[in-house]
Each structure stands twice: as C-alpha cells, then as structure tokens.
C-alpha cells in the first residue's frame, strides 16, 4: 500500500506530491511516477483477468460447440458416469443433452466475457470496476472451492486444475482489493496532473523566453541573391 505525503522537504523544482512505498526504500518523484506505482496492482489484476477470462471463454465456447455438433453423447466419448448423469438429468428436467451443453457453455462463457471487459476498466484504476470485479471473482472463488471439494472425493489426480484455478482467483482477489484501496489516491494524482499541466506548460514557455538584458545570438544572414 502506498500513501502520498507533501513534498515539502524535498527540493526538486516542482510541487508534485511524493509517494513513500512500503515495499521500497526510495521516494518516487513526480506525478507520472506516483501514478505508475499506484496502478501496479490494478495492472497486474487486469492481466490476470485477461488470462482467467480467456481460459473460461475458450472452455465455454468448446462446451457450447459440443451441443451444436450432430452427434450423440456416446459418440463424444464421454465417461460412463458422466453419460449416466446426463441421461438422468435429461429425464428429470426434460432438457435434451445438446441443449444442456449449449446452456452450460453460455453459463461459463458469459462471466468470462464480463471479466475480460472489466479488465480494461480495472487497468485504469477505477473504483466501480474494481468493486464489480471483486464481486465476480468472489462468486468464482466460491464455485472453485466447491469444485475442489468435489475433486477431493474423486481422487488426488483430479485436484490439479481446480487447485491451480483456486490459487489464481485468490491472487486476483488480493490484487483487486489493493487496486480498490488505491483508487482514491489514483484519482487525486490524476486531478493534480490536470491542475498542474497548464502551469507546467506556462513555466516551460517562460523558461524558453530570454531574460531581460540577456545576450541573444544575431539572426542568420539572408541567403545570397544571384
């Protein structure tokens, strides 16, 4: 976590704020450097959101594609236990197995698409997008926890993928919480940049102007005429 402190004890020629990072021993000067450091958790979270969302999206599309193929579940070479459960669900609900695959694909792909879209807004450091991403990740964490418990009953070999997904979601939740906590400071630095940009441009223009009485180089001679 980073906090902003006034730069009253540092003489660096600007009135930018200075950020003291808890995970670093040095000060970061300038609004651009402060903003970059504050956005690190949001940027890391967005990258992980793209990865998780992309994997879920591919999985959902693949499952939905199975339902559109003109083949019976037996031809898909599904395990016998899964086939028996699908036939039992078809008898109880009246939903045909291909339709069931399409519905499952939509259920998996839709949250994945939402996560990818939220990743672009989380990367900017927004509070609302971070909160929505935290809610979505919490739901996925709950579902992933149930999957891990179900995999425990199936055997140790079935634990690899659920555990990896659970660890990735926990890491994502941690970065999203950090990004939400830093959103106010990010907004404050952005407002500071907007206020100081005209002043910086004015100072730069004044710096380029010659001082009174300062010697100026004579203009170049005109080109020779034939």
Outline of this structure?
This protein has 226 residues and is mainly alpha-helical.
Main beta sheet strand tally, sense and closure: 3 strands, antiparallel
SSE ordering: EEEHHHHHHH
Q: Identify the overall geometry.
A: elongated
Intertermini distance: 71 Å
Q: How much strand?
A: under 5%
Radius of gyration, Cα only, in angstroms?
29 Å
Kindly state the percentage of residues in helix.
Answer: 55-70%
Order of strands, main sheet, comes to 1-2-3
The total count of helices amounts to 7
Number of strands: 3
Mean pLDDT: 76
**What class would the helix/strand composition place it in?**
mainly alpha
Low-pLDDT segments: 1-29
Report on this model:
The chain has 226 residues and is mainly alpha-helical. It has a domain at 39-185. 68% of the residues lie in helices and 5% in strands. The protein is built from seven helices and three strands. The protein has helices spanning 31-38, 40-68, 80-93, 97-122, 127-154, 160-181, 183-208, and strands at residues 2-5, 18-21, 27-29. Strand 2 and strand 3 form a beta hairpin. The longest helix has 29 residues, at 40-68.
Question: Main traits of this protein?
Answer:
3 strands; 226 residues; three-stranded antiparallel β-sheet; 7 helices; mainly alpha
Outline the secondary-structure elements:
Blueprint: E1 2-5, E2 18-21, E3 27-29, H1 31-38, H2 40-68, H3 80-93, H4 97-122, H5 127-154, H6 160-181, H7 183-208
Antiparallel strand pairs: 1-2, 2-3
Helix pairs in contact: 1-7, 2-4, 2-6, 4-5, 5-6
């Amino acid at each position: 976590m980073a906090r902003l402190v006034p730069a009253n004890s540092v003489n660096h020629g600007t009135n930018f704020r200075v950020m003291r990072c808890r995970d670093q021993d040095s000060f970061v000067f300038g609004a651009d450097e402060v903003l970059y450091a504050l956005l690190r958790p949001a940027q890391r979270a967005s990258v992980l959101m793209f990865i998780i969302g992309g994997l879920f999206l591919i999985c959902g599309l693949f499952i939905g594609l199975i339902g559109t193929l003109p083949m019976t579940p037996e031809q898909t070479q599904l395990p016998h236990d899964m086939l028996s459960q699908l036939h039992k669900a078809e008898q109880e609900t009246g939903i045909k197995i291909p339709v069931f695959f399409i519905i499952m694909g939509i259920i998996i792909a839709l949250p994945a698409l939402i996560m990818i879209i939220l990743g672009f807004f989380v990367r900017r450091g927004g509070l609302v997008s971070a909160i929505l991403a935290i809610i979505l990740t919490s739901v996925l964490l709950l579902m992933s926890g149930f999957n891990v418990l179900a995999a425990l009953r199936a055997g140790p070999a079935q634990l690899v993928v659920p555990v990896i997904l659970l660890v990735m979601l926990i890491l994502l939740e941690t970065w999203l919480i950090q990004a939400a906590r830093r959103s106010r400071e990010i907004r404050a630095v952005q407002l500071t940049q907007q206020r100081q940009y005209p002043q910086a441009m004015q100072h730069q223009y004044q710096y380029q102007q010659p001082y009174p009485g300062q010697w100026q180089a004579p203009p170049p001679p005109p080109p020779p005429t034939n």
